[in-house]
Amino acid sequence: MEVQETKRLKHYNNKQKILLVGEGDFSFSLSLARAFGSATNLIATSLDSQAELERNYKNGKANVEELERLGCNVVFGVNVHSMTTKHNLGCSATYDRVIFNFPHAGFDYGREHEIKTIMRHQELVRGFMKSARLLVKDEDKGGEIHVVHKTEYPFSEWKLKTLGEKEGLELVSEIEFCLNHYPGYSNKRGSRGYNDSSFPVGKSSTFIFKKQFFY
């Protein structure tokens, strides 16, 4: 029996079962798939419907089509608060990695430094963490939840470590995030008529969480 070659891109490889949440134009998923030469280990999801994706992102349709040709399961209409009820995402403790890049609750709540805005963002992240904790494998089986997030003020006020602790997750590592490590990835604003526009990531990190057994 032929042994599958391990292909890697930064923290990820083709032998991990990976769930991607909150994709914009699916370019991050596609960056992984191209590096692996396959996307059969990926499930890539978006809150948008397929029609919204095609309307909002000029490369969205082409990216999804390439992902599907490479074997990716693309799922639309996935809300992080309720994604455990999406039967096509699988059962509990399924994934080696669950990834949410640059979570953001939108631009309708005020300025980024305002408490009410920060609380909206925290609510989104906690909802994701609560759901992701049910879907990721246990710590002893190597399961990790990854959140890519800006680290400077006011984004530092989201307090990801504390949010994780409240949802039974331990922050085990924080690694500098570099956009150019993921060829083809174009981060998106995804809101307020500027969906297809990128934003400067500035100083950002991949925050890596694992389940706390004593939770």
UniProtKB/TrEMBL annotation:
Domain 25S rRNA (uridine-N(3))-methyltransferase BMT5-like: start-end pairs: 19-189
Entries under InterPro entries matching the protein: BMT5-like (IPR019446)
Residue spans crossing the bilayer: none
GO biological process, one term: rRNA base methylation
Pfam families: BMT5-like (PF10354)
Gene Ontology CC entries for this record: cytoplasm
An example molecular function term from Gene Ontology annotations: rRNA (uridine-N3-)-methyltransferase activity
Domain of life: Eukaryota
Protein name as annotated: 25S rRNA (uridine-N(3))-methyltransferase BMT5-like domain-containing protein
Organism: Brassica campestris (Field mustard)
